[in-house]
């Protein structure tokens, strides 16, 4: 049975790292006294050690030990034996490239489908979809494939921002970018606003958090999805 939290972000304005998700994270990993952290997305280019230390500090508050995957001699074995997994945010291109380079993409998909609790934020949420093609990140490295875990049957656009009608900026909006994606692809896309997340239990995919999310299909107007919507009914 799949058991995941797929969050738009690790940190909302005015709070500490993972603080807003702490009750949900405690429930997700309630039977896990230690988890494996995947630091490969390296936000701002920070080191694996520094990124793991940041995540470790947050998990210490709920009495869960955390160890970076880079600290294991055999990362494949580490994922297969993990009691819980957290993949943090950063650059999705870098994360996906590392997972393929280390032959971890298929392993990660297998252990999640077998029930290992999984937390993903930002880039770690992007990889839960069918592809990483709706990320907001710069292509700083070229992964061998854009295909990702396919744990959910659509793509995520984390950190989704609504257009500011009072702004003088004339660049493309997030909605425009997703429309561009749908010019060539039919995969549904969920625009996940800050502070919202998906709670996945087996086949149920519930939208959680204070804000609605935006659902995009090709050749259709976007739909606002309210909290507690079960997205599995939309597929």
SSE arrangement, N to C: EHEHEHEHHEHEHEEEEE
* CATH homology superfamily: Class I glutamine amidotransferase (GATase) domain
Percentage of β-strand residues = 15-25%
Nearest-integer average pLDDT: 96
β-strand number:
11
| Shape designation | globular
Total DSSP helices: 7
Lateral strand order in the biggest sheet: 3-2-4-5-1-8-9
CATH class equals Alpha Beta
Number of domains: 1
Quick structural overview:
It contains 7 helices and 11 strands. It has a single domain, classed as Class I glutamine amidotransferase (GATase) domain (Rossmann fold, 3-Layer(aba) Sandwich).
Structural write-up:
The structure is a single chain. The chain is of the alpha/beta class and 235 residues long. The chain has one domain (3-233): Class I glutamine amidotransferase (GATase) domain (Rossmann fold, 3-Layer(aba) Sandwich). 25% of the residues lie in helices and 20% in strands. The chain contains seven helices and eleven strands. The protein has helices at 22-28, 48-60, 75-81, 92-101, 105-113, 123-126, 174-182; strands at 3-7, 34-38, 65-68, 85-87, 118-121, 155-158, 189-192, 196-201, 204-209, 213-216, 223-225. It has a seven-stranded mixed beta sheet with strand order 3-2-4-5-1-8-9. It has a four-stranded mixed beta sheet with strand order 6-7-10-11. The longest helix is centred in the N-terminal third of the chain and has 13 residues, at 48-60. The radius of gyration is 17 Å and the shape is globular. The mean pLDDT is 96.
């Amino acid at each position: 049975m799949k058991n995941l939290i797929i969050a738009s972000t690790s940190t909302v304005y005015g709070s500490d790292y993972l603080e807003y998700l702490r009750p949900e994270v405690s429930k997700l990993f309630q039977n896990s006294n230690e988890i494996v952290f995947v630091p490969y997305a390296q936000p701002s280019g920070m080191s694996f050690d520094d990124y793991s230390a940041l995540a470790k500090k947050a998990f210490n508050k709920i009495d869960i030990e955390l160890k970076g995957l880079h600290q294991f001699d055999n990362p494949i074995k580490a994922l297969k034996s993990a009691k819980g997994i957290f993949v943090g945010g950063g650059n999705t291109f870098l994360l996906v490239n590392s997972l393929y380079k280390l032959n971890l993409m298929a392993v990660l998909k297998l252990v999640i489908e077998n029930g290992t609790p999984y937390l993903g934020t930002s880039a770690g949420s992007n990889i839960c979809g069918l592809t990483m093609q709706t990320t907001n990140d710069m292509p700083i490295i070229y992964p061998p494939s854009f295909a990702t875990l396919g744990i959910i049957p659509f793509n995520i656009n984390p950190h989704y921002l609504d257009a500011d009608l009072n702004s003088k900026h004339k660049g493309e909006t997030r909605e425009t970018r997703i429309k561009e994606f749908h010019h060539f692809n039919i995969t549904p896309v969920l625009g996940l606003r800050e502070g919202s997340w998906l709670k996945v239990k087996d086949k149920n995919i519930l939208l959680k958090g204070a804000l609605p999310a935006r659902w995009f299909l090709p050749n259709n107007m976007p739909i606002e999805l309210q909290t507690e919507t079960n997205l599995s009914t939309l597929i």
